[in-house]
Amino acid sequence: VVCMIQRNPTAVVALVTVPLVCFVHPALGLIVMLLSHASNCHMALC
């Protein structure tokens, strides 16, 4: 599991986001996606 997270963090974000959007509230899934995107952009630029 740890190897999968290190190799493909986008898949992990997708697996977390889809249940949040479908079962909890769409805004929570959107927040998770935005935070993940901001983190990826920050790592790419720094």
Class by alpha and beta content: mainly alpha
Overall pLDDT, averaged?
83
Shape: flat
Strand content: under 5%
Rg to the nearest angstrom?
A: 12 Å
Number of domains: 1
Our count of helices gives 3
Distance between the termini: 27 Å
Helix content: over 70%
Per DSSP E runs of 2 or more residues, the count of β-strands stands at: 0
The unreliable regions are none
Order of helices and strands: HHH
- What does the main sheet amount to? none
Could you outline the blueprint of secondary structure elements for this entry?
Blueprint: H1 2-7, H2 9-24, H3 26-45
Q: How would you characterize this protein structure?
A:
With 46 residues, the protein is an all-alpha fold. It has one domain (2-45). Helices cover 91% and strands 0% of the residues. The chain has 3 helices and no strands. The model has no long low-confidence stretch (mean pLDDT 83).
Structure in a nutshell:
Keywords: Membrane, Transmembrane, Transmembrane helix. The protein is mostly helical and 46 residues long.
